[in-house]
Amino acid sequence: MSATLEAPPVLDETALRCAGMQKFLGEGAARIQALRGVDLELMPGEIHAVVGPSGCGKSSLLYILGLLDRPDAGTLWVQGGEVSTWTDEELSHRRNASLGFIFQFHFLLQDFTAAENIMIPMRRLGGWSERDMRERAVSLLEAVGLGDKANRSSRALSGGEQQRVAIARALANDPAVILADEPTGNLDSANSERVFDLMRRLTHTERKALLLVTHNPAIANSCDVVHTMRDGLIVNEQRRG
Ligand SMILES: Nc1ncnc2c1ncn2[C@@H]1O[C@H](COP(=O)(O)OP(=O)(O)O)[C@@H](O)[C@H]1O
Ligand SMILES: [Mg+2]
Predict the structure, then answer these.
(1) Nearest CA, atom 18, ligand 1
(2) CB contact at 8 A, 56 and 234
(3) Residues forming beta bridges with residue 146, ordered by sequence position
């Protein structure tokens, strides 16, 4: 009997990984080391929280992981690709195609409708017809419970609704990784919970990887992994069983 050749098992590829990440910020006497060697690994379907006091380097880390800033030392991989080997063109394509961002202050364009805001990242990526972009924007708004508000201008939405539009916008290009810097920081507790539940549901059902900075202990404790940062370093990493 001939031996059957078995295909090698498909390994779940890391969504985001960094090793030895360092970053210096500021000039002259004000120069500080914001990151002192950060290691992190996110798999698809996982939610990680980053917690730590103000000024410990959380936002600096997210900017680098989100390809919005470059590290001074260390290696970063996005979906297995080593970022330092990418051309500028590839870098900006990856930033749009693989990563979604949610900030504390949503940064929606206030004069644009909810749907138009979500179409902005799609336009940047290119290759979509106007009609397909609009259809996708509306279906993303439905996913965040705002299907009936697609044509409403952003300024006429509540804070919680605007943050849900920002989540839909982060998902516009179907990114593998979502980075969120205090996404519920300016919401009341009911809206925080609602927004976080939504992010968790979308992360798990669509097997995204989500890394979020939060000061909310209830949110941090319901993440799969909690990284505690202090003074530019991850000093503790706790994985829930
Ligand atoms: N552009 C900058 N120039 C100089 N220092 C900066 C700059 N941005 C941030 N910092 C400093 O870097 C450190 C880390 O900042 P940050 O990453 O924003 O912390 P966190 O998000 O945890 O509050 C802080 O000491 C902050 O003051
Ligand atoms: Mg910050």
Answers:
(1) 59
(2) no
(3) none
162 domain-assigned: yes
- Residue 232 · residue 33 · CB < 8 Å: yes
CATH number at residue 37: 3.40.50.300
Give the pLDDT band (50/70/90) at residue 1.
very low
Q: Is residue 222 part of a domain?
A: yes
Token look-up 């419970």 returns: 145
Q: How many independent structural domains does the chain possess?
A: 1
Residue 241 banded pLDDT, cuts 50, 70, 90: confident
**Cα–Cα distance between 163 and 167 in angstroms, integer?**
6
Please give the residue range of the domain that contains residue 132. Answer: 27-239
Q: Which residues are bridge partners to 177 per DSSP? A: 99, 209
CA of 17 relative to ligand 1 center, distance in Å: 22
Residue nearest to atom 17 of ligand 1 (CA): 57
Query: Going by DSSP bridges, is the β-strand pair 209-213/47-51 parallel, antiparallel, or unpaired?
Result: parallel
Please report whether residue 18 resides in a domain.
no
The reply to whether 180 falls in a domain is yes
By most ligand atoms within 8 Å of CB, the mutation choice from 36, 59, 63, 65 for ligand 1 is 59
More confident residue, 3 or 194: 194
DSSP conformation letters of 98-159: HEEEEESS----TTSBHHHHHHHHHHHH----HHHHHHHHHHHHHHTT-GGGTTSBGGGS-H
Residues with CB under 6 A from ligand 1: 25-26, 32, 34, 54-60
